[in-house]
Fold this sequence. Notes:
- The chain is an alpha+beta fold.
- It has a single domain, classed as Glutaredoxin, CATH 3.40.30.
- It has helices at residues 10-21, 38-48, 61-66, 78-87, 110-119; strands spanning 2-5, 27-30, 96-98, 104-106.
- α1 packs across α5.
Amino acid sequence: xxxxxxxxxxxxxxxxKLLDEEGxxxxxxxxxxxxxxxxxxxxxxxxxxxxxxxxxxxQEAAAKELGLKEWPREAGARERWITxxxxxxxxxxRPIITADDGTAVVAxxxxxVRDALSRS
Length: 120
């Protein structure tokens, strides 16, 4: 399993702590340094069963500068949202855990982390 984190994020640190407590084997991806490609974001979205606007942090300064709250949330705008996530990775909701069974979760709660653990 892989976990996308921002080390400055308390939710990310909490998820890592729980993974360690459970003895999980995982790889850390600091996604602000190793920015996901468009393909990787598409893959994670498919694994999550979500759309890019569902994993976008709309309260970030970059989101406000881009006017994301006004962007359409429809299939025709999907690639525009993905481009924004690639160009501004801080907008990606965190942490995201990709489980070994091909699924993924946005692991902002202990329950979500445990859910990912049960899938690996």
